[in-house]
Amino acid sequence: MTSETLNGGAPARDTARRARVNQLTRAAQWFAGIEDDPYGLVLRAGDEDPHPYEERVRALGPLYHSTLLDTWVTADPAVARQVLGDPVFEGPGPAGATGGGDPLPYRSPALTPDRADAARLGDLTAFGGPLLRAGGPASVERRTEAAARTLLAGLGPRFDLAEDFARPLVGRVLAAELGLPEAVHGDFVRHLSGCRHALDGLLCPQTHAASVAGEAAERSLAALLAEALPEAPPGAGAGAEAEAGAGAGAEVGADADRADADRADVLRAALALAVGCAEPTAVLLSHAVGRLLAEPGGRLAPAARPEGAAAAIASTLRDAPPVRLRTRTAREAVTLAGHELPAGAHVTVLVAAVARDPRAAADGPPPSLPADPYPGPGAHLVGAVARAALRVLAATRPGLRAAGAAVVRPRSPVLRAPALWPVAADPAYGTEEETLPCAS
């Protein structure tokens, strides 16, 4: 620490300014809720079910302007498709390039690429391309099954579903898919866990301590990737071809693909994929388990079969998506649902509310995934890991039950991520592993 910092110099002033802006932005959201602004109530819901507030936004028309928070909000499928599909509406911010202000001083750099970065990074993340292993979702599911079995073997009859199983499993799988050496998997999982607030931080100011810790974790994760990410995707060559079977052809030339890609772009894509997909995958898995346990009979056993796990994950994506809110910034003036929006206008899509709309069911809802900020394989990666993990959990712990109330993490309106989710094996079922069919 320098004397300038100790004596109130520039670094200390900047930290104080950022903390103050963060606090004031959260206060504005809280005040909007007090004034009965439905979007403000969504952002401050905490443990409260945001469903009624989302429906109030829908009742106000296809596009609602939260004047207190200066944000346009929609639960309308057609408007949502335009916002998420039109290049005029780009990443979550900041809007400084258009003259607008950004009230969130701690946005994750990994999740806020500019226009050129978003297009370039999206091209790097196809299965078998410069970044991820070949073989597609089926291979991801096989590797996830193996990792889940290993992890569960070390857990006792009582554990925390999110903290002890979902998050470390997702981190291990992502590390393997990126081809990181096993020696750094533990550090990768630890740094990635520290980034868990990043997606919520795109819309809801996290505490100053959590924000600073998240920035440090993201820097550490970026440094680890720069040091450990291989030049070529893992398994490129004859051995991987034997494993992937029909999909092995995608690996031909993978070495050349990564060699041709700019190293800095590959590293940015890896960071964005990890930070953007890890926590939503853990949330999706946790919510799917919770929904199964809440059904009559409350048992996971039906999800031990591939079709049962696939159905549970699909229904969770539809009814309780792990990314409930998506935000975009208008990079130029645009007309949306009859309203003239200036450049720099912020628009939020209530993904969960859109998915509930019967019109979305008829036309296909706008994607709640990928959670990463660019079009890529995130949706396939997230779904594959969640399906395989649920199958293994259901096969090895078919009588799993809730061992206490699940607690939603504070300031998590985007993910409604679990802070606490205790579960325990039912002694009547035991924990002996059943035969689990492999993913096909």
Description:
By secondary structure, the chain is α+β, with helices and mostly antiparallel strands. It has a single domain, classed as Cytochrome p450 (Orthogonal Bundle). Helices cover 50% and strands 9% of the residues. The chain is globular, with a radius of gyration of 22 Å.
Task: Give a brief rundown of this model.
With 440 residues, this protein is of the alpha+beta class.
Write the layout of secondary structure elements.
Layout: H1 3-6, H2 10-34, H3 38-43, H4 51-59, E1 64-66, E2 71-74, H5 77-85, E3 89-90, H6 115-122, H7 136-153, E4 158-160, H8 161-177, H9 185-194, H10 208-228, H11 238-244, H12 254-260, H13 263-294, H14 306-319, E5 325-330, E6 334-336, E7 339-341, E8 346-350, H15 351-356, H16 358-363, H17 378-396, E9 401-402, E10 407-408, E11 418-420, E12 422-424
Parallel strand pairs: 2-8
Antiparallel strand pairs: 1-2, 3-5, 4-12, 5-8, 6-7, 9-12, 10-11
Attribute tags:
440 residues, Cytochrome p450, three-stranded antiparallel beta sheet, 17 helices, 12 strands, 9% strand, globular, disordered N terminus
CATH fold type: Cytochrome p450
Distance between the termini: 55 Å
Strand elements, count: 12
Structural category:
alpha+beta
Low-confidence stretches: 1-8, 95-100, 237-258, 370-375, 431-440
One letter per element, helices H and strands E, the order comes to HHHHEEHEHHEHHHHHHHEEEEHHHEEEE
Strand arrangement, major sheet: 1-2-8-5-3
Domain count, please report it: 1
Helical fraction equals: 40-55%
Which architecture per CATH? Orthogonal Bundle
Measured by DSSP, the beta-strand proportion falls in 5-15%
Q: CATH homologous superfamily, by name?
A: Cytochrome P450
Radius of gyration: 22 Å
Global morphology: globular
The total count of helices amounts to 17
The largest sheet is: 5 strands, mixed
Please report the first level of CATH classification, the CATH class. Answer: Mainly Alpha
Average predicted local confidence, pLDDT: 84
